[in-house]
From TrEMBL, chain A:
Membrane-topology descriptor: Multi-pass membrane protein
InterPro entries on file: Beta-barrel_TonB, Beta-barrel_TonB_sf, Plug_dom, Plug_dom_sf, TonB-dep_rcpt-like
TonB-dependent receptor plug domain span: 51-151
Record's keyword terms, sorted: Cell outer membrane, Membrane, Receptor, Signal, TonB box, Transmembrane, Transmembrane beta strand, Transport
Domain TonB-dependent receptor-like beta-barrel positions: 184-608
Family named by the database record: Belongs to the TonB-dependent receptor family.
PANTHER family: HEMOGLOBIN AND HEMOGLOBIN-HAPTOGLOBIN-BINDING PROTEIN 1-RELATED, TONB-DEPENDENT OUTER MEMBRANE RECEPTOR
Annotated protein name in UniProt: TonB-dependent receptor
Subcellular location(s) of the protein: Cell outer membrane
From TrEMBL, chain B:
Short name of any one Pfam family annotated for the protein: DUF5074
Keywords recorded for this protein, A-Z: Signal
Protein name, as recorded: 40-residue YVTN family beta-propeller repeat-containing protein
SUPFAM superfamilies recorded: C-terminal (heme d1) domain of cytochrome cd1-nitrite reductase
Length: 639, 362
C-alpha cells in the first residue's frame, strides 16, 4: 500500500524540478547526443554486429497506441505469442524457445518478473514507451540473463519538441471496450518532460462456439473482463553541456478476470498486477569517453485469486548499472560495465521474505576495420550465489561486399553464448528446492544476407534472409519427482533451427506514400537430449509453429491512410508429442484513418476492424478468441 | 396455423420415437456385445493437463496389440472429453467417465463409446460407482479454500435414468475412491482418517471407521475383506517432522471393524493406487515411488517390490495378471504405458495420451 504515496512524491518531485527549470530559462546548449550511436548506428546493433534487429515504425505504433505490445508485435513480426484467452497472460516465443528465454528490457534494464522469469506483454500498453526493437537470437545476452531466444528492447520516447505539446485520444470498441489516454510534453533546450496517463477497460463478452459441448452451441464468453490504467513520467535535464540527467517513471495497473478454457469449471480466476518502475540515468561526457550510471527501483505485485487460491507475490528489485564507453576515432568503441541486482521477494509460496543478489560484468568491443566491415566482440560474466553461469561471449560481423548506386549487399553473421538464471520461484518455492539446478545455457549461430535497393527518393526496398541454429542446454521445467513432488529440473537440451525472411518496401509516388512489409519464418525446435523421464526426442516443441508469415501494407494520400495486417500462423502442437494440435489460422486487420488539420492542431479519426473475416482461432488450446470487432478512435494532437 | 404446426411436430416426434424404438429392439436382438471397443482390451484414462480439455481415453487391444488414442473424441463428433479425466467405471453396457475439472460425468456406451448423456452440476467429482442400472454414487471434493485447505466433501447420489443428482451426502475431507459391498458404499476420506459407510437403501451414513491418516484407495478381496491404503500425513506446507507413515488397513465388512493395520516402515514415503489381482488374493500398490505386492493371506506387512519405477496410474489385468503402469512424462507430452508380467519383467510398452492415471479392463 506504500506504493501510491511513493508515486505522488515522485510526481511532485518532477513538477518541482520542472517549474524551477522553466523559471530559470537557461541559455540554449546543443542537445546532447550519444556519439557512439551517431557513428555506429542503431543502439541495439552497435555491439551486436551481424545480429538481426527489427524496429517497429512509429507511425504503425501510433495506430496501435490503444493496444498492447503483444497486439502490435503479433501483427508485424514473425514472433509467436501465446495468449491465454483474450484477457489472460500473453507470452512471447522467439526462435522456438519459450517466454522466460526472452529478455525484456526497458531503457536497458531487465523488467521480466523475477518470480516467473517472463514478462506479460498484455499488460504493456503501446502508449507507455517510445520505441520498440526486437533483437533475434542470443546476441542480446550482452544485456544479461534470459536473452536466449531473443530480446525485446523498449525505450522511453526521445523528446525533441520545444514548448508545450499535448495529445489526447479516446476509443470505443466492440465487446465493451473503452480506452482513453492523454499526454502532455514540455521541452526547452535544457529540459524535456512528459507525463502520460491511460485508462482502459474491456468486457470481452463476445460470442463463441463452445467446442466442448454437444452440438457446439454458441456461448457468451464469461469471466474475461479487463480494466487497466497507468502513468508514465519522463524528465531529461541537461545539467551541463556534457552532463545529462534523466528520470523515468512508469506505473501500470491491470485487473483481469482470467478466461477459463472451454469446458473447464468456472473458477472465477482473477489477476491483479501492479508494476512500478522508477529509473534515474546520468550521462557524462569527458575525455575518457562517456560515463553512464543507471539506478532503478522496480516493484512487481501480483495477486491471483480463484475459488480455491489466494496467492500474492510482491517483489522489489533494485538495480544499479554503471558503464564507461570509450570511442576512439571512427573505428573503435569499447564499453565496459557492471550490473548489480538485489531482489527482495515475498510470496505466498515462499517461507518468509527471500532475497537474492546478482552481479555481472561486461566488456563490449566494436571495431570497423573499413567502412564496409563491422566487427563486434562481447563478453559477459554473471555471478549469482549457487547458480554461476558460464561466460556469455559473442562475436559478430557485417560485411558490405557489394555497393553500387542502387544496390547494397551485406553478409552478416553472429555467434553468441547466452544464459538464464533460475527464477526466484525455482529457487525459493517451498518444498520445490532443487540444489542441483543449473542455469540454462544457450549457443546460437546465425548468418544472413541483407539487400538494399534504393531508387532515388521514390523506392526503398530492404530485404533480409537469415538462417540460424541454436542449442539450449539445461532447459528448466517443473517436473514431478518419484514421489510426485513438483520441482524445477534441468529437463532437456533443445536444438532449434530456422529461416527468417523479411522484406520491406517504401515508395513515394507524388503525394502518395506506400509501404509494404512481408515476413516468413520457418522454425524447427525439438528435444535432442532428455535428462529426466521419457521425453519426446525429435518432435516439435509444443506451441511452436513451424510456419508463420505476415504481410502488412500502409498507404497514405492527402490525409487519408489505410493500413492492413495479414497474419498466417501454422498449426501448433499442444503437447510435446505432436499428438494434439491447434489448426492454422489467418487473421486480417484493416484500419482506415483520416487526418484533419485544424490550424496547427491535428484531429485524427480512425476506424479499425480486427479479425475482419471472423476467423475462429486459438493461440492456447480451447481458449476462445474474439470474432470480428470494430474500434473507433479519435485523437487530437496539439504540436 | 399454430394448431397445424403443433400437430406436425407431434407426428414427427411419434415417427421418430417409433424409429428409435425399432433400432433399439434391433440392438437387443444381438447376441453378446458388439462395437469397436468390445474386444479383449484395456482402456487407459489419460488425465490431460489441468485447465485444458486435453484429457482422453486410449484403447489397447490385447489381441492385436494395437493402440487407439482419443477414442472419445473420435466417436463423438470431435468433441473433446474435457478437463482432467479422473476415472472411469463400467456398469452394464455403460461407461461412466468422471471429468474432474469439467464438473461432469460423461456417460457412453461401453462398447461403442458413443455418448449417452452427461451428468452435470457436480463439483470436483473424483470417482464413481453404480449400484445398479438406476442409481450410482460419485465422490466430490468441492472447491478448496484460498489457503488450499479443504472443507468436507460429499457423495452425490445419481439417478441413472435421468442423469440428475438425487441427493448429496456430506462425508469427510477429499473423498476419493469408493466401492459397494454388501449393500453399503465405502468411501475413503483422503484428507482425514476415516472410511464413511453409507447404506444404499437409505442413502444415509451408517458409520465412520477410523483408519490411518489419508485413506485414498480400497479393494474388496476374495474373502470379502476390505483393504484400505492410507498415505499417512504428508503436506508440502508442513514440517516433515510432523509426517506420519502410510499403512494398509484390513476391515471385516460384516462387522465393519478394523482387524489389522500394517504400517509401512518409511515415514516420509507415501502410498497410493491400491489395486488387486484377478483372483483377488494379492494387493498391488505404489509405495515410495515403486510398485509392491502384498498377499492377502499374510498376517503382517510382508510386501515385495515388483517394479522399481514410479507410475501415475497402476492396473492389474484380471485375466493375465500383467501389471500396467502409466508414466505421465512430466505432463508435457504423451504418457507411456509399461506392461510387466507378475515377476516384474517388462513385456511391452505403448504410447497413450497425456498423463495416464488409470486402467479399466474389458
Amino acid at each position: 500500500m506504500a506504493r501510491f504515496p511513493f508515486i505522488k512524491v515522485w510526481l511532485l518531485g518532477c513538477s518541482v524540478v520542472l517549474s524551477h527549470v522553466a523559471l530559470a530559462q537557461q541559455p540554449d546548449s546543443a542537445r546532447h547526443q550519444l556519439r557512439t550511436v551517431e557513428i555506429f548506428g542503431k543502439p541495439a546493433e552497435v555491439y551486436a554486429a551481424g545480429s538481426r534487429v527489427a524496429q517497429l515504425d512509429s507511425s504503425y505504433l501510433s495506430t496501435y497506441a490503444s493496444g498492447s505490445l503483444a497486439q502490435a508485435l503479433q501483427a508485424r513480426t514473425p514472433i509467436y505469442f501465446k495468449n491465454y484467452g483474450v484477457s489472460g497472460i500473453s507470452s512471447v516465443a522467439f526462435r522456438g524457445t519459450n517466454a522466460s528465454q526472452t529478455a525484456v528490457l526497458w531503457n536497458g534494464l531487465n523488467i521480466s518478473s523475477p518470480t516467473l522469469g517472463q514478462a506479460d506483454f498484455s499488460t504493456i500498453p503501446v502508449t507507455s514507451f517510445g520505441d520498440v526493437a526486437v533483437q533475434f537470437g542470443a546476441a542480446g545476452a550482452a544485456y544479461g540473463s534470459g536473452a536466449i531466444g531473443g530480446a525485446v528492447l523498449l525505450s522511453s520516447p526521445k523528446y525533441t519538441s520545444k514548448g508545450l505539446s499535448a495529445t489526447i485520444q479516446s476509443e470505443i470498441g466492440s465487446f465493451g471496450r473503452y480506452f482513453g489516454n492523454g499526454s502532455i510534453t514540455y521541452g526547452s533546450s535544457k529540459v524535456q518532460t512528459s507525463t502520460g496517463v491511460y485508462i482502459g477497460q474491456a468486457a470481452n463478452n463476445f460470442k463463441y462456439k463452445d467446442l466442448t459441448q454437444i452440438q457446439t452451441p454458441e456461448a457468451r464468453q464469461e469471466n474475461a473482463a479487463v480494466a487497466q490504467h497507468g502513468i508514465t513520467q519522463d524528465l531529461t535535464w541537461q545539467l551541463a553541456y556534457n552532463t545529462k540527467l534523466a528520470l523515468h517513471g512508469w506505473y501500470t495497473f491491470a485487473d483481469r478476470e482470467v478466461q477459463p478454457a472451454m469446458g473447464s469449471a468456472a473458477n472465477n480466476a482473477r489477476m491483479q498486477d501492479k508494476n512500478l518502475r522508477l529509473m534515474a540515468e546520468l550521462e557524462h561526457d569527458s575525455r575518457w569517453g562517456q560515463t553512464e550510471v543507471k539506478a532503478a527501483y522496480f516493484n512487481d505485485y501480483l495477486h491471483y485469486t480463484n475459488t480455491s487460491t489466494n496467492s500474492v507475490a510482491d517483489i522489489s528489485t533494485y538495480q544499479l548499472q554503471a558503464e564507461q564507453t570509450y570511442t576512439h576515432g571512427k573505428r573503435w568503441s569499447l564499453r565496459g560495465g557492471v550490473n548489480l541486482q538485489h531482489f527482495s521477494a515475498e510470496s505466498s509460496g515462499y517461507a518468509g521474505e527471500q532475497t537474492e543478489n546478482r552481479a555481472s560484468a561486461f566488456a563490449l568491443l566494436r571495431y570497423d576495420p573499413s567502412s564496409r566491415i563491422k566487427l563486434s566482440l562481447n563478453l559477459r560474466q554473471a555471478v549469482v550465489e549457487g547458480y554461476n553461469p558460464k561466460p556469455a561471449p559473442a562475436l559478430g560481423f557485417d560485411w558490405k561486399f557489394y555497393n553500387d548506386n542502387t544496390n547494397q549487399l551485406s553478409l552478416k553473421g553472429n555467434v553468441a553464448g547466452s544464459y538464464r538464471i533460475p527464477t526466484l520461484n525455482d529457487r525459493f518455492w517451498i518444498g520445490a528446492g532443487n540444489p542441483d539446478l543449473k542455469p540454462e545455457q544457450g549457443w546460437s549461430y546465425e548468418s544472413g544476407l541483407r539487400h538494399l535497393f534504393i531508387l532515388g527518393n521514390t523506392l526503398l526496398l530492404e530485404t533480409e534472409l537469415t538462417a540460424y541454429q541454436m542449442l539450449v542446454d539445461n532447459w528448466i521445467q517443473w517436473f514431478p519427482d518419484a514421489t510426485g513432488r513438483w520441482r524445477p529440473v534441468n529437463l532437456f537440451r533443445v536444438a532449434s533451427k530456422g529461416v527468417e525472411a523479411g522484406t520491406k518496401a517504401t515508395a513515394t509516388i507524388g503525394e502518395a506514400k506506400l509501404s509494404a512489409t512481408a515476413g516468413y519464418t520457418y522454425t524447427s525446435s525439438e528435444q535432442v537430449k532428455v535428462y529426466e523421464g521419457s521425453g519426446d526426442k525429435g518432435k516439435q516443441l509444443m506451441y511452436v509453429p513451424h510456419h508463420k508469415a505476415i504481410l502488412g501494407a500502409d498507404a497514405t494520400y492527402k490525409g487519408w491512410s489505410v493500413l492492413s495486417n495479414l497474419n498466417y500462423t501454422g498449426l501448433r502442437y499442444i503437447s510435446n508429442s505432436e499428438s494434439g494440435y491447434l489448426e492454422d489460422f489467418i487473421l486480417l486487420d484493416l484500419v482506415l484513418s483520416k487526418k484533419l488539420q485544424l490550424q496547427k492542431s491535428q484531429l485524427i479519426l480512425t476506424l479499425r476492424s480486427d479479425n475482419v473475416t471472423s476467423a475462429t482461432y486459438h493461440t492456447m488450446a480451447y481458449h476462445a478468441m474474439p470474432p470480428r470487432g470494430y474500434t473507433f478512435n479519435i485523437r487530437f494532437i496539439i504540436p | 396455423m399454430k394448431k397445424n404446426s403443433l400437430f406436425r411436430s407431434l407426428l414427427t416426434a411419434a415417427v421418430l420415437s417409433v424409429i428409435s424404438l425399432s433400432f433399439t429392439s434391433c440392438d437387443n436382438e444381438d447376441s453378446g456385445p458388439s462395437g469397436a471397443y468390445a474386444e479383449n482390451g484395456v482402456f487407459v484414462v489419460n488425465e490431460g493437463n489441468f485447465g485444458y480439455p486435453t484429457s482422453s481415453l486410449s484403447y489397447y487391444n490385447k489381441g492385436t496389440q494395437e493402440v487407439q488414442n482419443n477414442i472419445f473424441k473420435k466417436e463423438n463428433q470431435d468433441r473433446p472429453l474435457g478437463d482432467v479425466a479422473q476415472s472411469m467405471a463400467f456398469h452394464g453396457d455403460r461407461a461412466f467417465i468422471v471429468v474432474n475439472n469439467s464438473n461432469k460425468i460423461e456417460v457412453v456406451n461401453r462398447y461403442t463409446f458413443k455418448s449417452e448423456g452427461v451428468i452435470e452440476g457436480l463439483s470436483g467429482p473424483r470417482y464413481f460407482v453404480a449400484l445398479n442400472g438406476n442409481k450410482g454414487y460419485v465422490t466430490e471434493w468441492l472447491p478448496s479454500n484460498p489457503d488450499w485447505s479443504y472443507n468436507n466433501g460429499r457423495v452425490s447420489v445419481i439417478d441413472l435414468n435421468t442423469f440428475t443428482v438425487l441427493k448429496t451426502i456430506q462425508v469427510g475431507l477429499q473423498p476419493e475412491k469408493l466401492l459397494i459391498a454388501g449393500g453399503k458404499v465405502y468411501v475413503t476420506n483422503s484428507g482425514g482418517s476415516t472410511i464413511t459407510v453409507i447404506s444404499t437403501v437409505t442413502d444415509a451414513i451408517e458409520k465412520n471407521i477410523s483408519v490411518t491418516h489419508g485413506p485414498n484407495s480400497l479393494v474388496l478381496d476374495k474373502n470379502n475383506a476390505l483393504w484400505v491404503l492410507s498415505s499417512g500425513f504428508k503436506n508440502w506446507q508442513a514440517d516433515p517432522s510432523t509426517y506420519s507413515a502410510a499403512a494398509l488397513t484390513k476391515i471385516i465388512t460384516t462387522a465393519n471393524e478394523v482387524t489389522g493395520t500394517y504400517t509401512f516402515p518409511e515415514v516420509s514415503a507415501g502410498a497410493s493406487k491400491l489395486v488387486q489381482s484377478g483372483a483377488k488374493d494379492a494387493l498391488y500398490y505404489s509405495y515410495g515411488g515403486k510398485v509392491y505386492r502384498q498377499p492377502i493371506a499374510s498376517e503382517s506387512l510382508s510386501h515385495t517390490m515388483v517394479i522399481d519405477k514410479n507410475f501415475y496410474g497402476i492396473g492389474v489385468d484380471p485375466e493375465t495378471g500383467y501389471i500396467y503402469g502409466g508414466d505421465a512424462n512430466g505432463f508435457t507430452g504423451d504418457g507411456t504405458v509399461y506392461v510387466y508380467n507378475t515377476e516384474g519383467t517388462k513385456v511391452t510398452e505403448f504410447r497413450v495420451g497425456i498423463a495416464p492415471n488409470g486402467f479399466v479392463f474389458n
